[in-house]
């Protein structure tokens, strides 16, 4: 075990910037959400009226937490806890895969295993690294909430609950890395497990039983099948139940033990889920770089497209509900109008949901361009470029497919929106508003294609962390900036904050021409610089 400190230190140094973004970003989100809630829902009456409407429309609980009362702290955690836990889960699962299956793919694990460290010590170092990361996330989140003046015990339970969910998905990531043959496959399995767990908890809450005063929801048994549900059962600032925290942490450790057992019985580089066998003859599309990129990124694009369809469905399904809530609650109406720019309430709801859609489309774009970096580090890009394919054409293929991915996400959202309108016999004029707003989000999301491509060319090692960090910052500024009272010029730094929208007076193009210019300049810069760039495999 003398090599354990060195391996742990290497992981901490390697992930220093990424973990700083994850942990501080999560804590900052908790702090700013409290500030927003205190401003918008400053009275018990305002918070109680929102909870009463939630009980009457439980579909809202699909993307919120478990209502535990109208107290300031309890209400804030009802709004934000699932997202704190989601960030912790994503951080942990990515960390687990990066230092296990990812290291095996690039050959680093084989070199380490040939030393005194063997095969198990690196896995134990990764487990310790993940535990420390979640402890830091929990501590910073608790400190952020305590700094607002909320009770210390409730703040500690809130932070520990999010960190404990992170520990569960640390175990999920470790097991996924043992099961799947590639890091992309392991990440996909972990993320799909995370999202299904998130949705299961939301459905379990929506199927629950409200209290007589409509201030508290007792979730159904389905919630107890999800680690997110366990985290929500802590009910910070209401019950402060620590039992579910122990349950989450225990499951994470059990899964980590399973990962250790699986690794001890498999060959280095092997997996328990075999790679899918290819056809005897490749289709003609694989003879072109865009066709190959489309094949490599197809599963992720389909996944983001499904998320877009759900977002579009919720936009039209909840538009009328939120309009009615806003009529009875001026605070909520101010929030929606602040994000959407002061339009009609139904139009404003569409803008809010399609701002979220723009973030999903940007995630699809960034993941697609980041695949170029993965191909480079895995050595497969070198094989492609050894043929009659130049560097510019190769990178352009990822840019084109990323743009197609954005179109798929937006088109799926419009299909979901149409289904929602048909189900409730809604106003079909909203679909035209959504098409215009969606077109604006295409321009906004395309900015991330250009910026990530430039990062890939100029600083390839930063492609993945910096590409995703820009999406996270843009989400905070564009979606939450108006709620947190950021100045207009700060909100406009986010492409989503300057995308065209539909107002009661027509179409406000806002910063459309700046977005198009940024895409054109960024794309041309990335492709131009790619001509002289050498492959950066390490």
Quick overview of this protein structure:
This protein has 538 residues and is mainly α. The chain has helices at residues 4-14, 16-40, 44-56, 72-98, 101-105, 108-113, 120-147, 152-179, 183-206, 227-232, 243-264, 289-328, 330-340, 345-378, 380-385, 391-424, 429-458, 463-484, 488-491, 512-530; strands at residues 209-210, 217-218, 501-503, 506-508.
List keywords for this structure.
two-stranded antiparallel sheet; 20 helices; mainly alpha; 2 domains; 4 strands; 2% strand; 538 residues
Structure characterization notes:
It is built from 20 helices and 4 strands. It is mainly α and 538 residues long. Strand 1 (209-210) and strand 2 (217-218) form a beta hairpin. It folds into 2 domains: 1-273, no CATH class; 288-538, no CATH class. The strands form 2 sheets. The protein has a two-stranded antiparallel sheet with strand order 1-2. A two-stranded antiparallel ribbon has the order 3-4. It is globular, with a radius of gyration of 23 Å.
SSE topology:
Layout: H1 4-14, H2 16-40, H3 44-56, H4 72-98, H5 101-105, H6 108-113, H7 120-147, H8 152-179, H9 183-206, E1 209-210, E2 217-218, H10 227-232, H11 243-264, H12 289-328, H13 330-340, H14 345-378, H15 380-385, H16 391-424, H17 429-458, H18 463-484, H19 488-491, E3 501-503, E4 506-508, H20 512-530
Antiparallel strand pairs: 1-2, 3-4
Helix pairs in contact: 1-7, 2-4, 2-7, 2-18, 4-7, 4-8, 4-9, 7-8, 7-11, 8-9, 8-11, 12-13, 12-14, 12-16, 13-14, 14-16, 14-17, 14-18, 16-17, 16-20, 17-18, 17-20
Report the sheet-strand fraction.
under 5%
- State the low-pLDDT regions, or none: none
Please give the number of β-strands. 4
Helix content: over 70%
The coarse overall form would be globular
In oligomeric terms, what are we looking at? Answer: single chain
Secondary-structure content class: mainly alpha
Distance between the termini: 27 Å
Q: Tell me the series of helices and strands, N- to C-terminal.
A: HHHHHHHHHEEHHHHHHHHHHEEH
How many H/I helices?
20
Biggest sheet strand order reads 1-2
Radius of gyration: 23 Å
The chain-level mean pLDDT equals: 84
- Number of structural domains: 2
Biggest β-sheet, characterized? Answer: 2 strands, antiparallel
